[in-house]
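Propose amino acids for all 268 sites.
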């Protein structure tokens, strides 16, 4: 299957060019903001609408800074040590989810402390909306023909422009399906039918576990970065960075379930 000829520039007006990747960030953040607004209509009432809108700017800055710093340190440290000025060339690409995640965690901690908001309840809201941003981000990766998969002979394999002329797994679409649609539906089901928001930390735990597990699985189909390659046991840097997320997810899920069990015992 030949890669669809999609211009990475979505809209061009004279010298102004808006790329699909930029639109992915915009759609992801706005989509997440709208989804959280709907959740805030029902208890627990974690924060006001104005506080959520204020956090949007925090999220944008923290994701960009964290994502860039994460890419520099996790994926191409030696190059940027020799070319430090290029760290600021974000328009050339190079963002790390794990770095962006670290950035927004710091932003969440500071924001909730300043505004006297429950950290766990607020984190649950952000985690609930995160798959929306992940979905749009992975679709943008596909449009850009980047982060493609390993060579394969499956019938849906795609020949990417920069993939060496050989059919490869469309791993960006796998990630959009698992990290985006799949994880979003799981969280939505827990909210609608399991009263998950009444157990602070549960949704955050589900997101961390779900994303980490999905990323570890998909890395078996995704081509590792050429300048890093495979690590010990044919693993990848993406898999190793996802292990702490899985462990953290298990921890928060266990804590939320323990609190639920204790509450039931008290009532009984």
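Proposal:
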């Amino acid at each position: 299957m030949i890669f669809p000829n999609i211009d990475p520039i979505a809209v061009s007006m004279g010298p102004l060019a808006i790329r699909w990747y930029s639109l992915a960030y915009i759609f992801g953040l706005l989509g997440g903001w709208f989804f959280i607004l709907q959740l805030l209509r029902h208890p627990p009432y974690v924060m006001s609408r104005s506080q959520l809108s204020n956090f949007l700017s925090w999220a944008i800055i923290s994701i960009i800074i964290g994502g860039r710093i994460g890419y520099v340190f996790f994926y191409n440290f030696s190059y940027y040590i020799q070319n430090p000025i290029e760290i600021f060339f974000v328009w050339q690409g190079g963002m790390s989810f794990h770095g962006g995640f670290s950035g927004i965690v710091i932003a969440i901690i500071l924001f909730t402390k300043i505004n006297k908001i429950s950290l766990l309840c607020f984190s649950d809201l952000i985690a609930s909306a995160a798959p929306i941003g992940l979905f749009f981000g992975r679709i943008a990766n596909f449009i850009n023909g980047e982060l493609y998969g390993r060579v394969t002979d499956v019938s849906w394999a795609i020949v990417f422009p920069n993939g060496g002329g050989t059919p490869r797994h469309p791993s960006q679409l796998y990630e959009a399906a698992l990290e985006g649609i799949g994880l979003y539906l799981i969280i939505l089901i827990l909210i609608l039918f399991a009263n998950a928001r009444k157990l602070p930390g549960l949704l955050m735990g589900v997101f961390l576990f779900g994303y980490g597990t999905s990323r570890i699985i998909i890395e078996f189909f995704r081509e590792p970065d050429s300048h890093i390659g495979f690590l010990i046991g044919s693993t990848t840097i993406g898999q190793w960075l996802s292990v702490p997320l899985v462990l953290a997810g298990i921890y928060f899920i266990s804590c939320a379930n323990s609190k639920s069990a204790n509450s039931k015992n008290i009532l009984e």
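Residues 264-268 have pLDDT under 50 and may be disordered. The longest strand covers residues 9-13.
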